[in-house]
Write a structure and sequence with these properties.
Layout (H helix, E strand, L loop, with lengths): L1 H13 L2 E2 L1 E4 L1 E7 L2 E6 L4 E6 L10 E11 L6 E5 L2 H11 L9 H11 L2 E12 L2 E10 L2 E10 L1 H11 L3 E4 H7 L1 E9 L11 E2 L10 H17 L3 H24 L3
Parallel strand pairs: 8-11
Antiparallel strand pairs: 1-11, 2-6, 3-4, 3-6, 4-5, 5-12, 6-7, 8-9, 9-10, 12-13
């Protein structure tokens, strides 16, 4: 009887859930150019609210983010601003990058296994003010009547889902109300901020040149991986390289305004 009730609840919730994929996004920002998602391959996705009641987004500096793409035919993106560490660890898991020492998410996965449970699904369920919430669903191996669910941060829930190879689901109404539509995709132009030229160039085509954003992401990834593996001397070296790279990048950007 309990199993039947559990299955009915799952089936009912499935009707209001969408299955997304994880985009390899580096960060998101909002400003004069609109809402921009910076991708690992150097592309920039300019987006607008899907909902006509979404209003104007406040300006904010670049932040690490997990970006989910809805696979229901709409192509809507749900950006979730997170800390740098969960973002980097998620990209490592998505790309099957091996990390020498266990991460928090690997430890959680092993604890669930040791207790005889398995992860069934992860769901991004709601937003309260500016914070998103997710739930993780567990059931006892061999006895699905023993089941439980609890709240997690989406960044943690999604990391666990990827490592446990279980579905990630998003509340359909949340995706439609908070989702973003991509209106332009390409490389950022190197024109000065005051220029009337196009915002993007080389649409959806690599230019064959080294990608500045990818280099910055790789430096950040190497630094955080070294921290996770407790290689603090290496982490300090990567930090110095990252700071130098960002200083040079800032100086180059400033030269365009002179």
């Amino acid at each position: 009887m309990v199993v039947e009730v559990w299955l009915k609840i799952l089936m009912k919730m499935m009707k209001i859930m969408l299955i997304p994929t994880i985009l390899e996004a580096v960060e998101v920002k909002s400003g004069a150019d609109g809402f921009i998602v910076k991708m690992r391959d150097g592309r920039h996705l300019r987006c607008v609210h899907n909902s006509p009641h979404g209003g104007l987004l406040p300006d904010y500096a670049p932040h690490p983010a997990i970006v989910l793409k809805m696979e229901d035919g709409t192509g809507l993106l749900l950006p979730i601003i997170v800390l740098e560490m969960p973002s980097v660890l998620l990209m490592a898991a998505v790309r099957n990058v091996q990390i020498a020492r266990p991460t928090l998410y690997q430890v959680v996965k092993e604890m669930i296994d040791k207790m005889g449970y398995e992860v069934r699904a992860v769901r991004v369920t709601k937003r309260v003010q500016e914070a998103y919430f997710a739930q993780i669903y567990l059931s006892k191996v061999g006895n699905e009547s023993e089941c439980m669910s609890f709240d997690l941060r989406p960044s943690d829930a999604i990391n666990i889902a990827v490592r446990c190879k279980v579905p990630i689901q998003v509340n359909k109404y949340l995706a439609y109300s908070d989702g973003m539509r991509v209106i332009e995709s390409g490389k950022l132009s190197t024109q000065s901020p005051g220029s009337d030229g196009p915002l993007f160039t080389e649409l959806d085509r690599p230019n064959g040149k080294p990608c500045v954003e990818t280099k910055e992401f790789n430096l950040l990834h190497n630094m955080l991986t070294a921290v996770v593996e407790e290689r603090y001397q290496d982490a300090a070296l990567w930090r110095d390289q990252l700071n130098q790279f960002r200083a040079e990048k800032k100086a180059n950007n400033r030269s365009w305004t002179l």
